[in-house]
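Practice problem 4.
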């Protein structure tokens, strides 16, 4: 039961107190288990894990880029693994929230420059000129109906910085460093790398980030609106991982369909007709559940005219 509302109101009475306490202590690694990846799926550059806080809750799927020798820079195979991993997490009805992180000390140092050839990134199966397909991954992440949260430690630069910006929420610890390097490296992202950034930090600041290609520490990034919360790393280094579990449980305690529709709505203006289509798809999905939607299907299958007037909701 809720306590009686005080005259002045209270920010702590927002329902969070109804969620059971956080599991585990930040002195040991968070209790993720290997995700049950089917045997026909081979992930070489990405690790998938799962943590379900309790039987009553959805699970959190944690997707980690694992190329630590190159500061988790992504090559074409990494992007393909991420596309597969996000698809699995999105389609899994047991999963309520997805976390994207880098394994080890860094989030991601962008596109792997050592496999970048004359026309793009070399890959045996790629078209000519080769490309990273990372823009396809960005679109997939934005279309995913589940919240995606970036957990950033160390460098999130170049294409790695864009990956965190495309996520719905970003948490980081005080080791995090953010920035674009493209203009120094002979690269740029004129897609979400520009439009999303300008929406997050404003046009002037976005131009500063791209034109100067500077790096920014966690607090500066948070002050600019790139980051939701900076968490003290703590002695163990797991501080932000436990905070991420807390945020995920908080989101997963809310209505999944409400979150999916809100995500689509918040993306809609940036994504033009494709964004409206995503939002509209949710409306059609909900409509299928109405008596009116069912009557249309039943009438067709019974080879009779639909009888709309028997349904009160047809007055709309
Ligand atoms: C991140 C650094 C500042 C870290 O510096 P430091 O701590 O000193 O570590 P290093 O010794 O430099 O790094 C250790 C080790 O990792 C290798 N490495 C780091 N980053 C990369 C990388 N991006 N590619 C390949 N290898 C990398 C480094 O060489 C070291 O290896 P050794 O063998 O020990 O020498 C610093 O590392 C740094 O500045 N890194 C580069 C950051 C960067 O510029 N990233 C790429 C930007 S371009 C991009 O991301 C592509 C964007 C993209 O994909 C795209 C987007 C939109 C449309 C199209 C595309 C597209 O298809 O291109």
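Answer key:
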């Amino acid at each position: 039961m809720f306590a009686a509302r005080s005259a002045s109101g209270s920010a702590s009475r927002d329902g969070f107190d109804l969620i059971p306490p956080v599991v585990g202590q930040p002195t040991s690694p968070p209790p993720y288990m290997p995700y049950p990846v089917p045997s026909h799926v081979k992930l070489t550059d990405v690790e998938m894990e799962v943590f379900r806080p309790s039987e009553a809750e959805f699970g959190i799927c944690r997707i980690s880029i694992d190329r630590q020798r190159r500061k988790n820079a992504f090559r074409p195979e990494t992007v393909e693994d991420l596309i597969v991993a996000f698809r699995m997490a999105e389609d899994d009805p047991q999963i309520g929230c997805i976390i994207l992180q880098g394994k080890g000390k860094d989030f991601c140092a962008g596109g792997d420059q050592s496999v970048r050839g004359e026309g793009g990134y070399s890959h045996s199966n790629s078209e000519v000129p080769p490309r990273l397909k990372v823009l396809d991954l960005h679109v997939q992440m934005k279309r995913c109906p589940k919240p995606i949260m970036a957990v950033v430690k160390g460098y999130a630069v170049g294409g790695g910085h864009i990956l965190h910006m495309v996520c719905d929420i970003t948490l980081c610890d005080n080791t995090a460093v953010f920035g674009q390097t493209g203009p120094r490296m002979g690269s740029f992202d004129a897609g979400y790398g520009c439009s999303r950034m300008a929406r997050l930090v404003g046009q002037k600041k976005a131009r500063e980030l791209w034109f100067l290609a500077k790096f920014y520490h966690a607090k500066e990034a948070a002050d600019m609106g790139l980051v939701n919360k900076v968490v003290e790393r703590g002695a163990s280094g797991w501080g932000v991982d436990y905070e991420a579990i807390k945020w995920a449980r908080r989101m997963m305690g809310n209505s999944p369909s409400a979150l999916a529709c809100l995500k689509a709505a918040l993306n809609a203006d940036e994504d033009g007709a494709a964004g409206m289509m995503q939002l509209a798809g949710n409306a059609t999905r909900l409509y299928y559940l109405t008596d009116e939607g069912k009557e249309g299907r039943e009438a067709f299958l019974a080879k009779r005219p639909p009888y709309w007037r028997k349904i009160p909701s047809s007055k709309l």
